[in-house]
Design a protein that fits this description.
The chain is mainly α. The protein is built from 4 helices and no strands. Pfam families: CCDC90-like.
Length: 180
């Protein structure tokens, strides 16, 4: 161990102030023991550069794993939404085709009862418009929710990454300060 003061000079100083040589040496010996004990306690709390590098690598691999998970999650959610949108489009096309066929049948079969058929067609169009409006609202809501979720995940990742970087920086600055 290195001592950062001259023990002999301290013994001489104590002797000049009225202590005996034996008393001065005992006091200096006690101070050295106290300093060594304190240094042992400090060294126990410190990590080595190798341990710090290992911890940093573990954090970086965890961040990479989280990034991969986020990419997989985004892709799966978008593909599910696309599949649902395609399904809704097919259903809308089928409904549209059914409505068109029904209107054609009604016109061919009931020309005499035109006023009644007009009211039925208007009712069918209103239902179709409501269904389309509701479907459009559902799609818009789902897309907005998905965008919000994506932004939330991005912000969480950025916060986590920033926290990790600042934590590592704080630890590194702490070690730097302890070494200096």
């Amino acid at each position: 161990r290195r001592l950062y003061f001259d023990t002999h000079a301290l013994v001489c100083l104590l002797e000049e102030k009225g202590f005996t040589t034996q008393q001065s040496e005992v006091i200096v010996s006690a101070l050295v023991k106290i300093m060594n004990t304190n240094l042992d306690m400090i060294y126990k709390d410190m990590v080595t550069k190798v341990q710090q590098e290992i911890a940093l690598q573990q954090v970086m691999s965890h961040i990479a794993g989280v990034k991969k998970d986020m990419i997989i999650l985004e892709k799966s959610e978008f593909s599910a939404l696309r599949a649902e949108n395609e399904k809704i489009k097919l259903e809308l096309q089928q409904i549209k085709k059914q409505v068109t066929d029904e209107i054609t049948k009604v016109h061919a079969d009931n020309k005499l009862n035109l006023n009644l058929e007009k009211s039925r067609v208007k009712e069918l169009h209103a239902q179709q418009d409501r269904a389309l409006t509701q479907t459009d609202r559902k799609i818009d809501t789902e897309v907005a929710d998905l965008k919000t979720m994506l932004e939330t995940h991005k912000l969480d990742n950025i916060k986590y990454l920033a926290g990790s970087v600042f934590t590592c920086l704080t630890v590194a600055l702490g070690f730097y300060r302890l070494w200096i």
